[in-house]
Amino acid sequence: MPELPEVEALKDFLADRLVGRRVARVLPVAISVLKTYDPPVTALEGREVTAVRRFGKFLDIEEEGLHLVTHLARAGWLHWKDTLPDGPPRPGKGPLALRVALETGEGFDLTEAGTRKRLAVYVVRDAAEIPGVARLGPDPLAGDFDEKRFAGLLQGERRRLKGALRDQSLIAGVGNAYSDEILHAARMSPFKIASSLTPEETRRLYEALRGTLAEAVERSHGLAAGRLKAEKKTGLRVHGRAGEACPVCGDTIREVSFSDSSLQYCPTCQTGGRPLADRRMSRLLK
Length: 286
Description:
This protein is of the alpha+beta class. 30% of the residues lie in helices and 20% in strands. β3 (58-63) and β4 form a beta hairpin. α1 (4-18) runs parallel beside α6. The longest helix is centred in the last third of the chain and has 22 residues, at 199-220. The radius of gyration is 20 Å and the shape is elongated. The two termini are 33 Å apart. Mean pLDDT is 93; it is low at 281-286.
């Protein structure tokens, strides 16, 4: 799933190619991807792109008073084309969901792999009209997101750190992968209760949050859209690396599985050497 660093890189990539140019056609291939109908997607045609922004994991392309906002969800992606194919795309069983064509002949495709279709596209007059944008918490890389503000968010937060970091209404932009990376950098258990952190632990987690995301943004800066997925994977230390050696201490990275996701962690670095209970596996063994 694209998270804050990848969407930030996509924002910069698209800003260089879209701002100041006019949209010729917006062609939805999978109608289910459209989550709004007024204004229609055709209202975007003929308008000049004036800005590209990011709200958490949402990508916002502004066109003279209208906004084309996308959430790539788990399996969505954006593919830039220097020259789009001639003729309209044909609806079918392929991954193509929506095509945006510029007057220059360039443009991009939005695609979604798999059968669980969650890619979302909105056309609105104000991005804040979208419920998912309206409920977003603060951006962790914003200039005013300091340690005091972060500590205030954790006060009274009875959830485990893993769940708290992934809650978009608490902190915008962090998902499954980078929450694992942040907790590993902070040397904290994903099961630790957020409100139980000491001031020193809060400081450590804050620095890991900002540092991990800033480093990932820096690695992704300037990369073409097609290279961002590979860059994300190579930069991860623990997420998706169960069974491999921890790059910090050499212990074996472990995994805890859930119904539709999993987390990875290092016992030596994060849990005092104790493996966390994998509840799904425990149920299977009963």
